Amino acid sequence: MSTPELGLPMAVAAPDLPARVRIYEVGARDGLQNEKATVPTEVKAEFIRRLADSGLTTIEATSFVHPKWVPQLADAEQLFPLVSDLGRSSGVHLPVLVPNERGLDRALALGARHVALFASATESFAKANLNRTVDESLAMFEPVVSRAKADKVHVRSYISMCFGDPWEGPVPIHQVVRVCKALMDMGCDELSLGDTIGVATPGHVQNLLAELNEEGVPTSVLGVHFHDTYGQALANTLAALQHGVTTVDASAGGLGGCPYAKSATGNLATEDLVWMLQGLGIDSGVDLARLTATSVWMAEGLGRPSPSRTVKALSHKE
User: Fold this and answer.
1) What pTM was computed for the model?
2) Which residues pair with 97 in a beta bridge?
């Protein structure tokens, strides 16, 4: 018998936490792009549909980066039409990653209404990921954001290396704030603070959030994106929730990493996040049993067990 059927976890609310959290599911894009083997298009589509069936309402579907750079997602034009009806029939948001105007053109041609950019707080990662300086990449994003907003498309921007960089070490908070302010000023609707190599700790998270607020970036536009390299992702998420953040990125089954930062391990597992939220009495709208079954199914397809502790616990067979 699984523990949810026993009424576990017991919901015990903690003070000053949000009543509801929006989970921004990244497994189908950020998770699968880091797999060595290419997952068939039909399997990706089924994965997204199962994620939606579990109650997730924001599922990043794919990436319109040039196939040479991310070959695992080279089928974006084939995949997106297979799942786009979810937005019309179920109200599920299906954001897609776009690196530049060409990527935006490809996404808009297929009817995408939510796009995401990927910026960097450090020069080293901007060079590795975008082959540009930080300022050059911001300049590249300006026409993308302008055109998307003119078409009433929702724009998110990821900011990578907000807490530490594998080449530069600790990242000064003012450096992150500068990039965030530039992206917000150019019109981004939402910013996701990325702990790309998983080195953040709770005090660092709260200090960054406080500094962003002091510099005019409201908590309402911020999401957090933690990797679990050092086992800190849930602790860091709780610190963000205590600050008032209500958007948390997570990956079903803990899939993912970063192809341009080899020290980055898997994302915060969506199931682990949901377990904590349920224990805190915070609504996410997600059916944990269905989500776990989906991650078990995908892990079997990938030929290896899920790193999510909650998936392991709930799928354990005597």
Assistant:
1) 0.95
2) 63, 116
